[in-house]
Design goal:
It is a single chain. This protein has 197 residues and is an alpha+beta fold. It has two domains: 48 residues, no CATH class; 141 residues, Roll (Mannose-Binding Protein A, Chain A), CATH 3.10.100.10. 25% of the residues lie in helices and 20% in strands. The protein has five helices and eight strands. Strands 1, 2, 3, 4, 5, 6, 7 and 8 form an eight-stranded mixed beta sheet that branches. A hairpin with a 5-residue loop joins strand 6 and strand 7. The termini are far apart.
């Protein structure tokens, strides 16, 4: 599992590096340049999943719930692992949600309750969020490179984080919105967020 994680991080870093290069006119190199697949991810290969809010699209989407002062959120109940959830949010011009306040936690719990359980998942009662400990064990950071305290919400469920090296992806308990560490390959619901309001 550790080897897969390293290979995934390396491939994301290489993709980011190539996406930041100008397009080549050499036809044998053009196939490497795919800026439409992964975009606006930042330039630091040490943390390729970071995402700057200023780069998100501000176009209004009908499938998001907009809340002034908090942002726009969309619950996906078609289950995915953490990596696929991250990618699906990115392809919508969003990111996995980062909880910045008690009010946002309460809003997300309400949205998850209205959406119902995940479909085809193997992990009920959880939803993936935009934080992880990929770079250092037990050092949890958001996709924007902040610690959870800096982001504004650091309320872990009792006994969490509990997984050590096996649980490096962030999720919440759908019942109360408290944080949980999770095996990245498990499939469950997830919440995307757009910063707009």
């Amino acid at each position: 599992m550790a080897i897969i994680s390293v290979v995934l991080r390396m491939s994301l870093c290489i993709t980011l590096t190539m996406a930041q290069q100008p397009a080549s006119t050499n036809s044998s190199v053009v196939w490497l340049y795919r800026p439409t697949f992964i975009y606006n991810l930042g330039s630091r290969c040490t943390s390729p999943l970071h995402h700057a809010r200023r780069n998100q699209s501000t176009a209004v989407r009908d499938d998001y719930t907009y809340t002034p002062g908090i942002g726009a959120h969309k619950v996906h109940t078609d289950a995915a692992n953490w990596y696929d959830a991250w990618l699906r949010c990115r392809l919508e011009g969003s990111n996995l949600s980062i909880i910045n306040s008690e009010a946002e936690k309460n809003l997300i719990v309400e949205l998850l309750s209205r959406a119902g359980p995940s479909h085809n998942g193997n992990l009920e009662g959880r939803a993936y969020m935009g934080f992880h400990s990929f770079f250092y064990p037990k050092v949890w950071i958001t996709l924007e490179g902040q610690t959870l305290s800096q982001a504004g919400f650091n309320e872990w469920h009792d006994g969490e984080p509990s997984g050590g090296d096996n649980e490096r992806c962030g999720s919440i308990f759908t019942s109360d919105g408290k944080l949980n560490d999770q095996e990245c390959g498990r499939t469950t619901s997830f919440v995307c967020e757009r910063h707009c309001c």
